[in-house]
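Submission sheet (multi-component)
Chains listed below:
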Amino acid sequence: MRKQFCDAMVGRSAARDMVFLTGDLGFMALEPLAAALGQRFVNAGVSEQNMISVAAALSRSGFETWAYSIAPFCYARPFEQIRNDVTFHGLPVKLVGNGGGYGYGVMGPTHHAIEDYGVLLTLDHLRVYCPVFDEDVPVAVEAAAAWPYAAYLRLGRGEPPQGYEVPAYAPWRQLVSGQGKTVVIASGPLAGTYIAALQALPDADRPNLWALAELPADPATMPPALITQLQAADIVCVAEEHVANGGAGMGLATLFLREGIAVRRFVHLHALSHVYETYGSQGFLRRKSRLDPQSLLGALQHGGALT
Amino acid sequence: MGMLVNNSVATAARRRLLRMHHESGVGHIGGNLSAIDSLLVLFHECLGSADKFILSKGHAAGALYIALWSSGRLDAARLASFHKDDTLLPGHPPTTGHDDILFATGSLGHGLSLAAGTAFAQILRKKNHAGLPHVYCLTSDGEWQEGSTWEGLIFACHHKLANLTVLVDHNGLQGFGTTTEVASMVPLGNRLRGFGAVVSEIDGHNLDAIRSACMARVDGVHVVIMNTVKGKGVSFMEDRMEWHYLPIDAARLEAALAELEE
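Outcome: structure written.
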């Protein structure tokens, strides 16, 4: 999604009072943005804490301010700067983390970001945007920019099946429809990885698959069709490339209770760990966490949702 | 620019500071007394309407509030609410409530980067360095043990932020020992110069020296190491670590005020 992100930012740069900070990352991706912004593209160096405080100050001075790094470096090291300098002051700094979840797979556990949005969602008014497909990125950028407080844009790699017609960006989107009494809700690009496996199921068993692209989940934007499906479902499964604590699953479970949506059975598939005995690609680590399509089908089968 | 700060102004400020801390029963008095002379000079004499100040050593909020009050930027009624319920003046600078307080600080190691970003924003706006609003930042000496402070200095020096002056309240005492014993940065000046700062060292209680250093404009980031005394002005507090923490009771307040006759 980096190319789409860069293109979107270049598009925004001409007409806006924007400063873009990077923590020395973006090689072979952000050069067009650097050219477009000139002095307002700032490589802050390998100093994430300083970058976020500088971003807060630039925002406080009236600039539209974006701060970019790879996802694990974007929020963990400078968390106190994000909390104290940005969100305490209600400043609309836009944080951008590339490679959310296990996106940097075989690079090792230091490069995984599987508690990023859970941590950030503890902060006042901060909103998280998880584009599902590459095509979502320009709209997600605009949505993050329009949010009047701090935002975190979690970039990954869109993985729709070949030939799939990507629906227009929305906080909630139905990606697969079926008559099965199961609803699967997945956040970010992980949702796209389930499309083919679920489409291959017989219509009578096929779950309804929804993609969630914004957190915290907003009940006001929940489509009525989703609410109807949730209330009729035997199983609701939430899947996310994020640890259980603080993740979308917990947020949705609370939302369902608060909104009086009676869910009969709740299954949560989530990232299990930073640390494994062996390492591998994003796909390998998704399998280790039982987040891959076959594991999803297995979980649904085990729950009696598939015949 | 307001009136020149003299010994009488500084003494009156110290007296009010001590009373305020007594009334609120709150500590951090020692580091307030080491910083207050520089804050008075800044707010009375140096800060123009477009200039900015960031208190990185947020535990000197009491001295900041006193300097704002002394320079006519904060009224007495609000000052009297210091550290009480429903106040806009908590023990460390707040997020909102006063135009001269840009950022809530108190966790050390944030202020220099915030100041550098503010100074950098002025450069982006003005396109050239001539006549830029000036940004001042007051740090403690202990907070130079924070890596983020050095990150801020690297950024500031790299961008040649000549509109940034960093004051270091070098009183030599930190939370649980002297700065030399705990994690020495001696010689601090040389280390700062090594990062590219233009460094001055002054007596941080000499009003003329503070004035000259704050008004000086140099070719780069100006860091002013102010050699100060924790608890300055009250003999039983001077250079005593416990006055980082202790509140002041009535008897000690009386004794301190007797030493600070106007």
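Remark: The interface with chain B takes residues 19, 39-40, 42, 44-45, 47, 49-50, 53-58, 60-63, 80-81, 84-85, 88-90 of chain A (CB under 8 Å).
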